[in-house]
Design goal:
By secondary structure, this protein is mainly α. It folds into 2 domains: 64 residues; 87 residues, Orthogonal Bundle (Arc Repressor Mutant, subunit A), CATH 1.10.10. β1 and β2 form a beta hairpin. The N terminus is likely disordered.
C-alpha cells in the first residue's frame, strides 16, 4: 500500500474517531446538534480528501504533463461533452476569466481547439484534439486507480448512499446559489 493511501486511511480513521467522540457526547434528544456534528465531520473529511487529491495524487498523475488540477477538471468536462466556455464555467463553479486562461493554456499545449460554433457564430466551441483525448484517458485512468484503491474496503451500499448524498448536496447548493442571485 503506497504512502498516500496509508495517509488517507489514517486521516479517515482519525476523523471518524474524533467524530464518534463528538457525537457520543451529544444528548440523544438534541437532533439538530447531532445533525450539525454529522455535517461538520462530513465537511472535514471531504476537505481532507480533496486536499490529498490535489496535493498528493493529482501531482503524481498530471505532474509530468505540466497541468494543474483545474486543467484536469476542464479537460474532463470537455471530454464529457461540455463544449462551451460558459458551460465549463458552470461545471467548474468558476468565472469566465479563469476559464479563458485555462483554455488558452490547454490550446497552447495542443490539447483543445477553440473555434466559432457553426450554428451560432457568437459562441465559441471547445473540442479536444486527439492528443487531448489521449491525455484525458491517461489522467482519468491514473486518478481512477488511486480513487478505486481508496474506496476498495467501503461496501457498495455505503458508496451508493455517499454518491446520492453528494449529488443532493450539490443540487441544494446550486439551487441556493441560483435563488441568492435572483
Amino acid at each position: 500500500m503506497d504512502m498516500t493511501i496509508r495517509h488517507l486511511i489514517y486521516l479517515h480513521f482519525e476523523t471518524i474517531l474524533d467524530y464518534n467522540n463528538l457525537v457520543a457526547k451529544i444528548p440523544s434528544k438534541d437532533t439538530n446538534l447531532k445533525r450539525s456534528a454529522h455535517a461538520q465531520a462530513l465537511l472535514e473529511s471531504w476537505w481532507t480528501f480533496g486536499q490529498l487529491m490535489r496535493q498528493r495524487i493529482m501531482p503524481k498523475v498530471i505532474g509530468e504533463l505540466d497541468l494543474e488540477f483545474k486543467d484536469f477538471l476542464a479537460l474532463t468536462a470537455i471530454f464529457e461533452g461540455i463544449e462551451y466556455p460558459k458551460l465549463i464555467c458552470t461545471r467548474l463553479a468558476t468565472n469566465p476569466s479563469d476559464i479563458s486562461r485555462i483554455l488558452e493554456k490547454l490550446e497552447e499545449k495542443h490539447l483543445v481547439t477553440r473555434s466559432l460554433d457553426t450554428e451560432d457564430s457568437r459562441r465559441i466551441r471547445v473540442l479536444l484534439t486527439e492528443h487531448g483525448k489521449a491525455t484525458v484517458e491517461k489522467m482519468r485512468h491514473g486518478v481512477g486507480n488511486h480513487i478505486l484503491r481508496a474506496l476498495e474496503h467501503i461496501p457498495a451500499t455505503e458508496l451508493e448512499h455517499f454518491a446520492q448524498t453528494m449529488q443532493t448536496m450539490t443540487s441544494n447548493v446550486q439551487a441556493q446559489f441560483v435563488s441568492d442571485t435572483d
